[in-house]
Design goal:
The protein is about 85% helix and about 0% strand. The two termini are about 20 Å apart.
Amino acid sequence: MSTGMALALLGAALATIGGGIGSAWGTGMAGQAAAGVTAEDPSQFAKVLILQLLPGTQGIYGLLVTFITLSRIGVLGGTPITDTNTGWMYLFACLPIAVVGLISAYHQGRTSVASVGIVAKKPDQFGKAMLFPAMVETYAILALLISILAVTNIG
């Protein structure tokens, strides 16, 4: 395996790892809070489940960037890359979603926990409660777009 291919694979792996760890962390925190609310008021299950799921998107975004990268570097078909500079470009192109995915999913999880608290006290305020973690999602989407644009414009 060439150094370029190894660097590109590292970038692809980091995209999945960063988003995945962040999403696991965020959904775990929000799930704990959601379970507490559901134990007290089972009728709130659907609302708190949505709040728990929100931090899970970063893992999906990281996986998407990984699949695109693997397709572009020849792992899922085509000609494998060999150039070291190209490998570095793929590695750096994957970093936005890897880093922002990790951090934003964690903070989105914390925000979802707070929003679950709103639903527990005032179930009719679910729409407002959902806006807080959705705002954190904005930055994950921006990082996803940057990584996709960068990965697809290499070579």
